[in-house]
């Protein structure tokens, strides 16, 4: 239906803006908000393009209204901040950013990793802000090197973290054992994804608790955090660094969707 409506407006390319209008209506967003934003966003494109996109959004609202009346979709009540209000104290974060900021707050000045979704966001965020916070970031050749680099960083007096996901963490088992034997602190961010092996790289799950709990061979203490939300991610990651340092143990941060 989006393409059909867009063709009626004059160009099938407007289909995505019809969808924007429909979704905004379902979420009860004041239609002036997307209309004003559209005018600003397409200002340089000329009045014809602006009017086409605005018309598409309005048709999306009308389409949503028809669907709601037919009870084909439910209308949601989501609080939307007034754009005129001062909302500077509101922070929009995703999980990777919350872990990263918590790590910075915990004194993290070294991170190593071999990229593996969905953990890579932590490495990229800290890499982007490495100069601001004096953080050494290292993309290792594999996960074995990554965990050993982080252990070496702690041994040299830094506060290091390694970030990985299921299949990558499977390669880190000997490094976890080494941390236990050395009584070396280390913070391990384990972004859980469905397995086994490669599994589902673009999905998440809560399946790695026992993997973290029993990782490595031999009996040695460890600490595992499984944050339940964005705020928890920040504070528990910060705490992970302090407790790893205090008790000289591996501390895990398990994240999921």
UniProtKB/TrEMBL annotation:
<dbReference type="Pfam" id="PF01855">
    <property type="entry name" value="POR_N"/>
</dbReference>
<keyword id="KW-0812">Transmembrane</keyword>
<dbReference type="GO" id="GO:0006979">
    <property type="term" value="P:response to oxidative stress"/>
</dbReference>
<dbReference type="Pfam" id="PF01558">
    <property type="entry name" value="POR"/>
</dbReference>
<dbReference type="GO" id="GO:0016903">
    <property type="term" value="F:oxidoreductase activity, acting on the aldehyde or oxo group of donors"/>
</dbReference>
<dbReference type="InterPro" id="IPR019752">
    <property type="entry name" value="Pyrv/ketoisovalerate_OxRed_cat"/>
</dbReference>
<keyword id="KW-0560">Oxidoreductase</keyword>
<dbReference type="InterPro" id="IPR029061">
    <property type="entry name" value="THDP-binding"/>
</dbReference>
<feature type="domain" description="Pyruvate/ketoisovalerate oxidoreductase catalytic">
    <location>
        <begin position="1"/>
        <end position="62"/>
    </location>
</feature>
<dbReference type="InterPro" id="IPR002869">
    <property type="entry name" value="Pyrv_flavodox_OxRed_cen"/>
</dbReference>
<protein>
    <recommendedName>
        <fullName>Pyruvate flavodoxin/ferredoxin oxidoreductase pyrimidine binding domain-containing protein</fullName>
    </recommendedName>
</protein>
<feature type="transmembrane region" description="Helical">
    <location>
        <begin position="12"/>
        <end position="30"/>
    </location>
</feature>
<keyword id="KW-1133">Transmembrane helix</keyword>
<keyword id="KW-0472">Membrane</keyword>
<feature type="domain" description="Pyruvate flavodoxin/ferredoxin oxidoreductase pyrimidine binding">
    <location>
        <begin position="102"/>
        <end position="257"/>
    </location>
</feature>
<dbReference type="InterPro" id="IPR050722">
    <property type="entry name" value="Pyruvate:ferred/Flavod_OxRd"/>
</dbReference>
<dbReference type="InterPro" id="IPR002880">
    <property type="entry name" value="Pyrv_Fd/Flavodoxin_OxRdtase_N"/>
</dbReference>
